[in-house]
Amino acid sequence: MNRSRLLQTRVTPEEGELLDQLVKAHGFKSRSTALRALIRISTGLLETDPAIIRAWKDFARSNVKIGNNINQLTRKVNRGELIWKEEDRRLVEAVRQNVHEVNRLLADYLQEMRVNGAKRVSVLAQEDGG
Q: What is the DSSP secondary-structure string of 84-115?
């Protein structure tokens, strides 16, 4: 990415401290990185909290493990090594429905994050007089 354009601004000591807190809390490499993230948020791109990203990655890993277990059970059923009962079918169907529901919730959450991000930026702009 070409970062050739230099922007300069003055901030109050309190604003500088808030920026430093943001840098530290989210693990940004620098103030510049944090400011670029804030610019992207204000233009509608999503910058998700690192803790949320870690939680979703953990969730995804869990889903992979569940999927592997279901595949192993399916192979055993197909080889005749396991008797598939109606209760088993209902359980797998419930898992499938839960996965679809989680996907829907994730999509709703991401949309809400975009909307809330735009609202936050709007409030900040109004507070700053512009």
A: --HHHHHHHHHHHHHHHHHHHHHHHHHHHHHH
Q: What is the pLDDT of residues 111-125, one digit of tens each?
A: 777 777 666 655 544
Q: Which residues contact 115 (CB under 8 A, 6 or more apart)?
A: none
- Cα separation, 43 vs 7, in Å, equals 17
Q: Which amino acid, one-letter code, is at 101?
A: E
Residues 95 and 70: beta-carbon distance below 8 Å: yes
DSSP 55-94: HHHHHHHHHHHHHHHHHHHHHHHHTTSS---HHHHHHHHH
The residue among 52, 51, 48, 25 whose CA lies nearest residue 37 is 48
